Amino acid sequence: MKKVELLAPAGDLERLKWAILYGADAVYIGGPSFGLRANAGNFSFEEIKEGVTFAHKKKAHVHVTVNIALHNENIDKLPTYLKKLEELEVDAIIVSDPAIMNLALKETKLPIHISTQQSTLNKEAVKYFEKKGVSRIVLGREATKEDIKDILKNTNIEIETFIHGAMCASFSGRCVLSNFFTGRDANRGGCAQICRWDFNLYENKNKLEGEKPFTFCTKDLSLLKHLDEMIEMGISSFKIEGRMRSLYYVATVVGTYRKAIDEYYHNKENYVYNKEYERILNNCANRESTVQFFDGNYDEKCQYYNGRMEASNQEFLGIVLAYDEEKKEMIVEERNYFKKGDKVEIFGPDGNIIPYEINEIYDEENNKIEVVRHPKQIVKIKIDKKIKPNYLIRKIA
Amino acid sequence: MKKIIIPKNSKMIKELKDEIDGVLLGLKGYSATYETEFELEEIEEIISFLKGKEVFISINKNILNYEVENLYKQLEKLNEMKITGILFYDLAILNRKEKIKHNLWWAQEHFTTNYLTAKYYEEEGVKGAYLSSDITKKDLEEIRKNTKIKLMINAFGYLPIFVSRRNIIENYKKTFQIKNKGKNYYIEKEGKRYPIVERKEGTYVYSAFILNAAEEILSFQDNGFEYIVLNSFQIEEEKFKEIVILFSKITKENKKEIQKKIDEICNNNTDKAFLYRNTIVKVK
Questions:
Q1: CA B39, B44, B47, B50 torsion: positive or negative?
Q2: Which CATH number applies to A316-395?
């Protein structure tokens, strides 16, 4: 059986490189248009070229989203756009609209993945696309374990499923709350995430009030604990959600899943779920997570009512730029406030995690300092163990 | 241009029989956002008393894997009935097209937004499209101009804006132990009320305003649209009947007056949805 692909989000060129460095087999990105994150960084054609070159050197793939709901005004530009993506040698396009699929099949040799926006949730819909000649289906996030198994059993096409990240409260493509509340087009990349707002809920004239306000908001998805089962089912690709997520989030989540997948393949018979990885994933998330629809129990435990502002990744302290072997210091670029005495973990693309307590910090002029509080400040931290560049430092709670 | 209604019940259809050209019915267990879903037996009965009028069946639910076999059985039974067309969302239905006797209509509510995709489905043998309410009048007309496929558009009613597999109201009530057995829910934000309905299949949310395109229908007719749809969802029966009758009376001379009358019947909780405003894609 072919090894499962780990597919990571990349909001920009920097995150593309970090995702691949931390173990992604493929990344998915948005191009200059036709993608569903119109307000994210997205890639220019030049950046796609650079990203593809970088990825291919590392034997990784680049998938480009072309998954908007097509409007008349988009039609004219579409053929040239698809040709350009083919010219840039991207490895696949992710499409939702069958007209885009059809055009790409006729006019290009681009492999086509059907986006989760189509909410493909049954074997017959999968067969429809299979007959058309697409190479992969990204299933809707509402598919349960039993659904996925049966679809795999009855079809002969690559199946991609989400394994980690945020969820839509609705079937993908069937929510236009954003259009009606803000005028921003959810199916053309403008989603304003109205599902995360609070509302007053009434039944006739009675306001129904719980301790927290009513919302559609859901917890995130994490299927780490089902990873072995999912590999054994024959899923081709595990997708991590989050093209708007930070470099730290991408590196942490990709790195963790990379380790778990490799551990499984290294010793299938004795593979055990590592609870420590769950802690790492939970710490870098800004919402709780569940297995959502996978086990068929998509009940109240999947909803998220905390009502708090979502936390940013305060635990991400810095990036290791270099190591001075003579002085036994790592050179670090600060990302969040830290100080002498903080207990941290230094982790890297090779999966190593080094627990450490910060004892001596120096600024660029070699003055000893106690705290690091300036954004992107360059500091030196004493540590005997040699730390490679591109390691990241996180605080242990 | 033909006038189709989404009715609340058989009684409403009987009462409005002479005012309409047909009905669009939800099928029990296989529709989403329809206020009433009809059993096959009820559909058979409606066909027989509507004699010669058009009957469309909407199977616009996302079909879950375990539902496919049963859906196909339902489609076989529908094959025996005198149906004008079957509206589909899920492509499991299109994959079955050889075994479906009836005309298929593309009805992926927020994806039916352009002529190229309409043409694609036309080449797939689909006979009609039920167009989105998220696009402008100009867009609708451009689709008409560039395709031969039959077109159906919304002219009146609350518009579905959210479909989920989750039981979102029930989840909230369970989490906070709220004991309420009512059925008429709505959510409120910034003074606007959005109807929200929960079924065992999931949760649906609708627009705060009622689309009223009475003033536009003659223009749609002149442009060659085949069908308009008037939806009775959450409109009182008597008021809805009055509105359907008013739609039949629209002329060039009285269209503004009728528009106004319908607005008043709806307590002025009406608007034009996106007929005259484009959605925003990129925030500046």
A1: negative
A2: 2.40.30.10
Q: What is the pLDDT of residue A244?
A: 87
Q: Which two tokens stand for residue A365?
A: 């002029």
Give the model's pLDDT for residue A309: 45
Is some CB atom of chain B closer than 8 A to the CB atom of A81? no
User: Residue A187 and residue B182: Cβ atoms within 8 Å?
Assistant: no
> Would the CATH topology of A5-302 be identical to that of A316-395?
no
Under the banding of pLDDT at 50, 70 and 90, the label for residue A269 is very high
Partner residue facing A199 (CB), from B65, B90, B188: B188
Give a yes or no: residue B94 inside a domain. yes
Q: How confident is the model over A118-165, as pLDDT tens digits?
A: 999 999 999 999 999 999 999 999 999 999 999 999 999 999 999 999
Tell whether domain A5-302 is in CATH 3.20.20.70.
yes
Strand A371-372, strand B2-6: pairing: unpaired
Residues A262 and A32: their CA atoms lie apart, in Å, by 34
CA within 13 Å, CB half, B124: 25
The domain that holds B105 is classified in CATH as 3.20.20.70
With contact defined as beta carbons under 8 Å apart, do A160 and A92 qualify? Answer: no
Q: Which domain holds residue B150?
A: 2-155+212-235
Within a domain: B20:
yes
| Structural domain includes residue B93 | yes
Domain total in chain B: 1
Identity of the residue in B92, B189, B205 whose CB atom sits nearest the CB atom of A124: B92
- Strand order across the beta sheet in which A343-347 lies: A353-357, A343-347, A392-395, A316-324, A329-334, A378-382, A361-362, A368-369
Residue A348 contacts B, CB cutoff 8 Å: no
